[in-house]
Specification:
Mean pLDDT: 97
Number of strands: 13
Distance between the termini: 58 Å
Bound molecules: 6-O-phosphono-beta-D-fructofuranose
Number of helices: 22
Radius of gyration: 25 Å
Helix content: 40-55%
Amino acid sequence: MSNTAPLTQRNSWKSLQRHYQELKGLHLRDLFAQDPQRGRTFSVEAVGIYLDYSKNRITQQTLKHLLELAEESNLRDSIEAMFRGDPINITENRAVLHTALRSTPDACIEVSGKNVVPDVHAVLDRMSDFSDRVRSGAWTGHTGKPIVNVVNIGIGGSDLGPVMAYEALKSYSDRTRKFLFVSNVDGTDFAEAVQGLDPSETLFIVASKTFTTQETMTNAQTARDWLLKGMQAGPAAVAKHFVAVSTNAAKVSEFGIDTANMFGFWDWVGGRYSMDSAIGLSTMLAIGPANFREMLSGFRQIDEHFRNAPWDKNLPVIMALLGIWYNNFFGSSSVAVLPYDQYLKRFPAYLQQLTMESNGKRVTLSGNLVDYDTGSIYWGEPGTNGQHSFYQLIHQGTRLIPCDFIAFTNTLNPMGRHHDLLMANVFAQAEALAFGKTIQEVQSEGTAQWLAPHREFDGNRPSNMLMLDRLNPAALGKLVALYEHIVFTQGVIWNLGSFDQWGVELGKVLAQRIAPELQSKTVGELKHDSSTNALIERYRSSRQRD
Ligand code: F6P
């Protein structure tokens, strides 16, 4: 799959390096002046997403070289290998098949000779049945009361997807129920989530792929104690108030949850790619099975588009290549994702795990150190709030921060002129970033000479504009799948193992070692560095452990 030349040796890479030297001085003002149709030339529409990428510092030539880079990186073969179920997660020897989670029932996708699609749909059917029972009140708690509170306990991919999707699709959710999310091992997270809840009306979903994650297991144990104490009930009550989502049946039953109340998924679903697996059970409980399936159809439409559309019409490929252009040639280290929809307030946080846990790597698939930058830092806040906070730096700071704006033609909450103003702002921001305001323009307004430089906007700051009709379950599925495939494409070009996350291990191991050193009554000689030893000692003595 990767029998290509090392990245920086590829012809297209070298062409891009030369091309960058020619293009870096060009201003978007000039590029727009040269082509009055530029807004149309560099835009593409597919599966209900309009991408205007004209405000990027590119020409047709840039695009040509970038598309050659995709070709030279064997992107087509890599996509097929993923969709086919090849074990492309080589460090864990696993297939990477989140795309199978949204396949139609008649598809056949094999892992080790077994078609996984029937299992995917069997779990979806069980989730639907369970959701219907909870939503209709047929599923009751231990004392016969219907469930009115659903608390998802999970972290990372077992939390960020569910909480993001719940917030994004709140408008479609069952408003008679509360949905809460506990992730942090900080007890405050749990304490605040269950504040005021009646345990006899509360269902906990313990969501953990491995069912060994320290934070989740600690919170799940606390939830169990809280429930049994609050209900003054014995362990028999657990069955009606706890369900599990996991790949690890043995650990689920060890915890005391009946595996009849477990919804499974598979090791070929990465945690950060799992919101459309059973990890999405809280989403389904909130929005109902039909809406959940709509969301899956959105994912699937982008999957098919990614797999079949030519590169120059391919949304994830174009966006991935533009990301590489800025990351590797302009030296940009971050990407701001700026959704102009309040419901997408957790989308940037969700994308942080998706992008940074996937491509935050410094060795290639063959274990060699890279000699180029990899994963960008993703961050963002919903518009217009960010405008009154960090946009200053994006407009006038010294760093080049490419922005992805996300906007919807229709709002789910039409109210007076709000939506027109929201859209006016998103269009204005992209325009201001690209074209700025020259010092001459500033001076012509009568601004004093000394003040003019402060009020000048140099512009030439790139952005993408993604426009969709309205935020519905399918649109959310499309947006998530779009970024999944951007991450994949960039990982292929950078030649990374995008589907493991060894970088999170060391901290976990050290925390396991330090925890007993904080908790035990007596502790021998501490064997960390002098800084860590002092911190541990200070904590112990202030908690009177010595
Ligand atoms: O922090 C690493 C990680 O493994 C993530 O990749 C994952 O999403 C998260 O922990 C939670 O893991 P689990 O679902 O197994 O509890």
